[in-house]
Amino acid sequence: MISTAMAEKISNQINREFYSAYLYLALSTEADNANLRGAAEWFMAKYHEESAHGLKMVRYLLDQGAEVTHGAITAPPSQTGSLLAMFERTLEHEQQVTAAIHDIVDQALSEKDHATNIFMHWFVTEQIEEEATVSDILGRLRLFGDRSEGLLMIDNELAAAAKSMGQGESVA
């Protein structure tokens, strides 16, 4: 049986996942307003993905017979600036999510909560992929700087990546 402390930690993570979704929705609209439609689609795909992560955790707590507590979701920043700044914010955010997930795993190990430990391994692996993907995008953005040809190429790649994630849709 899952402990009350663990259920609370996972409920807090659910809140983080929905904040992540909200952050990506804000970045999607910002990118769309900057005519970076590929980036807007990529961030919208991330919005859907983060929402699904939150729902997956809700289902886990419910299946464990635990109480799900819902907290307020803070509004994300309204303007980030350049596409480079958007992805720098994304990497910083994903690193914070990774640390929070590791904290849950640490607690699961200390409580000998094998079910939660196993459940959270999927998220640990997912975070490795998330950070690697964003680091790769940042590397190319830094390589091209703010040259329009490079931004156009990256924007097109982001659109293709969003479609491969199965969620590519614009906000408009």
Could you explain how this protein is built, in words?
With 172 residues, the chain is an all-alpha fold. The chain has one domain: Ferritin (Up-down Bundle), CATH 1.20.1260. Helices cover 78% and strands 0% of the residues. The chain starts with a helix and ends in an 8-residue tail after the last helix. Mean pLDDT is 92; it is low at 168-172.
Reconstruct the topology from this structure:
Elements lengths: L3 H30 L3 H27 L19 H29 L2 H31 L3 H17 L8
Helix pairs in contact: 1-2, 1-3, 2-5, 3-4, 4-5
Q: Which short descriptors sum up this protein?
A:
172 residues, disordered C terminus, Ferritin, mainly alpha, 78% helix, 5 helices, single chain
CATH class: Mainly Alpha
Radius of gyration: 17 Å
Give the end-to-end Cα distance, rounded to a whole number of Å.
45 Å
CATH topology: Ferritin
SS-derived structural category: mainly alpha
Series of secondary-structure elements, N-terminal to C-terminal: HHHHH
The CATH H-level homologous superfamily:
Ferritin, core subunit, four-helix bundle
Q: What count of structural domains?
A: 1
Poorly predicted runs of 5 or more residues: 168-172
Question: What kind of assembly state do the chains in view correspond to?
Answer: single chain
Largest sheet: none
Looking at the overall shape, the CATH architecture is Up-down Bundle
Task: List the total number of helices.
Answer: 5
Share of helix, binned: over 70%
**How much of the residues is beta strand, in percent?**
under 5%
Mean pLDDT: 92
Morphology call: elongated
The overall strand count is 0
Protein name: Ferritin
Family: Belongs to the ferritin family. Prokaryotic subfamily.
Enzyme class: oxidoreductase
GO molecular function, one term: identical protein binding
